[in-house]
Amino acid sequence: xxxxxxxxxxxxxxxxxxxxxxxxxxxxxxxxxxxxxxxxxxxxxxxxxxxxxxxxxxxxxxxxxxxxxxxxxxxxxxxxxxxxxxxxxxxxxxxxxxxxxxxxxxxxxxxxxxxxxxxxxxxxxxxxxxxxxxxxxxxxxxxxxxxxxxxxxxxxxxxxx
Length: 161
Ligand SMILES: [Zn+2]
Known about the structure:
Blueprint: E1 3-6, E2 14-18, E3 25-28, H1 31-40, E4 69-72, E5 85-90, E6 97-102, E7 108-109, H2 112-121, E8 139-140
Antiparallel strand pairs: 1-2, 1-4, 2-3, 4-8, 5-6, 6-7
Bound molecules: zinc ion.
Subcellular location: Nucleus
InterPro entries: DNA-bd_dom_sf (IPR016177), Methyl_CpG_DNA-bd (IPR001739), Znf_CW (IPR011124)
Pfam family, one: MBD
């Protein structure tokens, strides 16, 4: 479910959630709303009706296909603490994504230790629960990676032309 789609820029540019009932993908307008849905998806599955004026009868907003690269998040990941921003960058070889957090002061934090140190040194943010920072990255869906990217690790050829 929920996913987000990378682009040539290798940053997430579209957030989407999949309806539990009709399996259509619905565009989610902001990272914040997306994270809210993702954090509760296990107890509160996403359905089309959650989008205002939308129902399962409406056409999907986007299709899961290789016209864009899809990455699928782990359900239940916590919502990013207020003031911080979670950022994901797709590696050049499309092998995986890397996660980091940007603090309210614009600092980039790349590990749980860096976050703990930042919160320790900045008591203003001590209300941000350490457990709500997660470096669990979404899975890059290999079948949506542009052709040629995986050619460097050739699979056994079937021998037909
Ligand atoms: Zn639906």
